[in-house]
Amino acid sequence: MTIEKLTRDNFALSSLDGFVRTQPVTEVYRKFGGEYRLVNEPFTDDWSPARKREKAAEILSGAYIVYGAWLDGRLAGFVMLANALNKNRLIVDSFHVSRDARRHGIGRALFECAKTEARARGAKQLYISACSSKETIAFYLAMDCRLADDAIPEAVEAEPFDLQLVCDVE
User: Fold this and answer.
1) How far is the C-alpha of 47 from the C-alpha of 55, rounded, in Å?
2) What is the tens place of the pLDDT at every residue in 25-82?
3) How many CA atoms lie within 13 A of 80 on its CB side?
4) How many C-beta atoms lie closer than 10 Å to residue 111's C-beta?
5) Roughly how many angstroms between the first and final C-alpha of the chain, as a whole number?
6) What pairing do the DSSP bridges indicate for beta strands 125-130 and 146-147?
């Protein structure tokens, strides 16, 4: 596995065409009386070919700091970070590992890369608006994330079912 910043030299609009974004979800966290509990709410999260091209265009826009993990010559995962800090936090805008490349340490390596970038930019924390699926939250908890005390209102409004998380980077 190789991790590097994604640029026009190593990434193109077609680079996500073979990316398997599919995530079958059975259980999600929902808040009841101030406490999160798992509930059965099955769905499949996926990207259409058009959405993959839109995401590739976002990566190429220069509006984000983006690191990609390459495995056997293909993009196996990526993390998109905001260019500016929000209250000493660097926002993880998007973070995905191709379904066929999961459980090989790629997510952990990309998350550590995001923490390193955050430290380099003077951030104290990473901020993540995370899908509330059982698997996604389990990953972030394993990365030492916790619920944010000071959620970003725009993030909550954009994704009301997401869990707002932070992770110390120091």
Assistant:
1) 9
2) 999 999 999 899 999 999 999 999 999 999 999 999 999 999 999 999 899 999 999 9
3) 15
4) 23
5) 25
6) unpaired
- Give the amino acid at 82: A
Q: Quick count: other Cβ atoms within 10 Å of Cβ 44?
A: 8
Within a 13 Å sphere around the CA of 34, how many CA atoms are in the beta-carbon half? 0
Please choose, from the candidates 1, 19, 14, the residue with its C-alpha nearest in 3D space to the C-alpha of residue 96: 19
Task: State both tokens at 91.
Answer: 């926002």
Length of the chain: 170
What is the C-alpha separation between 131 and 137, in angstroms, rounded? 7
Whether the model pTM is above 0.85: yes
- Written as six digits, the tokens of 28 are 């999600």
Tens of pLDDT, residues 86-104: 999 999 999 999 999 999 9
- How many H-runs (helices) and E-runs (strands) does the chain carry? 4, 9
Tokens of 24: 């079958």
Ranges assigned E (strand) in 98-138: 125-130
